[in-house]
Structure formats: structure tokens, C-alpha cells
Specification:
This protein is an alpha+beta fold. The chain folds into two domains: 127 residues, Elongation Factor Tu (Ef-tu), domain 3; 54 residues, LysM domain (Membrane-bound Lytic Murein Transglycosylase D, Chain A, Roll), CATH 3.10.350. Helix content is 14%, strand content 34%. It contains three helices and 13 strands, in the order ββββββαββββββααβ. The longest helix has 15 residues.
Length: 229
Amino acid sequence: MGNYSLTLSFNNEAEAIEFPVLPEKIEVSTSSGNKTYDVSQLGEVNVIKSAKLTEIAFEGIFPANWFPGCNVAQSALFVPSHYIVDRIEKWREEKRPVRLVFTGSTMNINLPVSIERFIWSESGGAVGDIAFQLALKEYRFYAARKVQIAKQSGSVSVAMPKLLSAKTPARADTRVQPKTYTLVAGDNLWKVAQKFLGDGSKYKQIQTLNGIKDAELKRLPVGKVIKLP
């Protein structure tokens, strides 16, 4: 599958899964919040509003056994319960957003999302394989502004708190970007660059910084600690 990958992570990638089998399609739905009104002597008018939250849905399988169609190495495949119980269901109970990252040839997604629907069942004819449907919705970080009291002659007016808009600098993640990273099974420099630099094509920066030769790229040892730009 080349450099295609689909991952879901939680708590700033402290926990993450890479989907072992890529879905046949990923549906991305966007719509506007436009409203129409009837205006006297003018007729119907359309008022353009901000876009609604993006919705993403796909379905696939968590295989019980590795096969050539898997998008991960055999050593990086977990049992279905790890993906379902230990990760997705656990993250839903935390009631916090997760991050979806899809790396493709013409489309890339890197978006905080909420898990809206997760349905799974054992596939008929493939003992142990678990089929699933996953629906996600874009998550926008927000917070309340401080209440400000504006004094006026003879009276006091209180400004009501407002939600921060999407353009306001988010305060969701203030942690310092890690300067090192320990490789795990299934990792390569492209994935590391995509995860920490936001662009897999920047893997050369990591390769140069760590003095890794081209011949070593396909056999990087698990547990190797690499420096990040």
C-alpha cells in the first residue's frame, strides 16, 4: 500500500492504533449552516453562515490473522479486541476528542474528531475477523471568555461570557513537542515525519539529523531512539 496509512490516536498520541486493513472508501461530508428568510417585497434571501462540522465515516475489518492485504507488518497486528476494547471503546468512555490522520496519494486528513458511532460484529465465514463501522465528527476546541464588567453612569452592565471562535488560538495542547521518539513495530521515517512534522515527505530531515543511511531505512530496529527536528 506504499505510504498509505490510517491512524486514530488519543491524548496527544500517547495511545494510538493504525488500522490494519485500509477501508475501501472514506466518506467525508461537509455542509454549510446557511439559512433562508422571506423578506417583504424582496422574497426569499439566503444568508451565508459558517460551515458545519465535517463528518467522516468508513467501514472495514479487524482481522484475526495477518494476510497479504494487511497494511501493517505481521508483527504490528494486534488481536481485534485490542482495537475495539482497549482503544476505541475506552476512548469513547473518556469523553475526549481523538485525532484521525489519513495519509494518501491525493488526499490527507489530520483532524481532531469525536467518535459518534461505532458498530462491530463478527464476520460470517471468517472466524475471528471483526467487521466494523465508524462514524466521526470534527471537534473544535473551545473555552469560555472571562466575564467583563463595564461600568456606566448610574448602572453596571455585565458582558456575558462568549465561546471562543474557531479562529481564536486554541489552548487544548500546550505541551512541548518531544525532541526524541522511540520506534515501535510498523514504524518508518515517513510515518514519524507525518506524525510529528505534519508532512511525511519531510522524513529526509529526520534521516539527516540521525545520520541514517538509505540502506537502513527499510530495517530500522524497534526500540531505536531517534532525534526529531
